[in-house]
Amino acid sequence: MLPELDNLLSALPREHIEEASRLGLVLKPGLNLYNWSKLVAHLVQMTGRASRNRDTLTAWLGDLLAFGGGRYRGQIAEYAKAAGLDPGTLRAAKLVCSRIPLLSRHNTLSWSHHCEVGKAFKVPAEIESWLSLAEREGLSVRELRKRIRQHLAGPTAPDSGPAAAGVVAPFALLRELRAVGRFVQNHSEVWQEWSPTTCELALSEMQPIADFLKEMKARTAGRPSLPMAG
Fold this sequence. Notes:
Elements: H1 3-11, E1 17-21, E2 24-27, H2 33-49, H3 54-68, H4 76-83, H5 87-99, H6 111-120, H7 124-137, H8 141-153, H9 168-186, H10 188-191, H11 196-205, H12 207-220
Antiparallel strand pairs: 1-2
C-alpha cells in the first residue's frame, strides 16, 4: 500500500465505516443522519486539503452520497466547492457508486475505469462484463472509453469499398447521435440535479445540436430549410 493512501486510511473515522479501500467505502448499517453529515464534512475537509489520491477521496465521497440517498439534496455543489472538486465530478461519483458497490469493483482497475463503465451502464451484468473486459485485456481508460462508445453507437454500416465513401459521414453522424442519446439517458440522475447556471452552460455548449434538431424538424414538416448557425 502506498504511504499516502495508508495515511488517508488512518485518518478516516472508522466508527461508522465497515470497510475502506483505494476504490471506496462500505458504511455500517444504521448510520443516522447526524453521523452521516459529520462523516461527509470530515471527508470534504480531507479532500480539500489533499494533493494526492484524490480519486480515492472522490470515490469515498461518492459512496457516502450514494448511501445518503436524498439527504444531500441541494448541497452537493457546496460539498464540491469545499472539497475542491467540480460539482459534476461529485455527481458522477455518486452515480457510479450507486451502480457499482465496493464489493463489485475490480482492484486491478483504476477509479477512472469504474467511472467510464458506471456512467455508461445501469445493469449489473453489463457493468461486470465491461469491468472484466477491461481487466482481462489490460485496457487503458482511453481505450475502454473508445470501446464503450463504439458499443453504444451500435453496429457500423457495411463497408462497400471506395464507391461508398460519400455515405460514410451520414452513418458516422447517426452512430454518434445514438451514442450521445444513450449517454444522456443513462445520466438522468446527474443532469436532473443541475443548477440553472449549469443548465445555461449546457445549452450554450449544445447549440450546434439544437440547430441540428431545428433543421431536422423543419425538413420532416416539409418546410423550407432554416439557416444553420455558424
